[in-house]
Fold this protein.
Amino acid sequence: MDQKEFTKSILTYNKAAFDQFIASSTMAQEQMEKLAEMLLQQENTPEEGKKMIGEWLGNVRQARKDIQESLNNSYRQMETYLLSLIP
């Protein structure tokens, strides 16, 4: 196996591990969202609380997407850089 293939396989492995981490954290956050939605459905939850929890859930989803997009871009840049170093 030449250096480029080896480097690419290491990066692919690390990217797959990252993707698996994102998938498992997404599953955990979805369970948390279900719990929060159950809280929102209760009649004794004030409207301000419902609004706050809804905004919070939206912020968490957006932050997760932003982090994933940023790290995907970083992986692409790192792969391009490392592969450019190998003759």
Notes: The longest helix spans residues 3-41. The mean pLDDT is 87. Helices lie at 3-41, 47-85. The CA atoms of residues 3 and 86 lie 7 Å apart.
